What does this fold into?
Amino acid sequence: MLFLARLKLKFIQLGGNVKKTLVVMLAIVAVAAAGCKKKEEAPKVVAPEAAPAAQMPAVAPGADPHAGLKPQEIKAGAGHKGKVTETMDSGGYTYVQVDENGQKVWVAVMQTKVKVGDTVEFPDSPPMVNFSSKTLKRTFEKIIFAPGLAVNK
It folds into this structure.
């Protein structure tokens, strides 16, 4: 309380210009403090609309979700290119081991006709690590799921 009394006494003793300056500065601080208290609302996220039924056909439980679908046509120069060293079909997919410049790469695509010795091209995609195929009862250390293959015989 003594502190406030002394502060009031000093304020009274100050000249007119200093008082006005002090009042203006206090007003600026008050406005700035009030402005800092206002919190911005987080932007509202709108969920994407569901795709039309024509693009996403209803599939009965246990049915093949890929029935009637075909692999995408891949054009030459798609990214990766190599010779098929091993291939197998299972569960609607074709699994292809490709020798690309001395490195073996496993690629999975929707079932496609391809044989050992064919040269194939496929686009770059992030690989899956330690992918376990239930139908093949096999785990692939690293495999790329590509939208399709360009097969050059």
The longest strand covers residues 79-90. Residues 70 and 110 are 7 Å apart (CA to CA). The beta strands are 79-90, 93-100, 103-110, 119-123, 128-133, 138-145, 150-152. The mean pLDDT is 74.
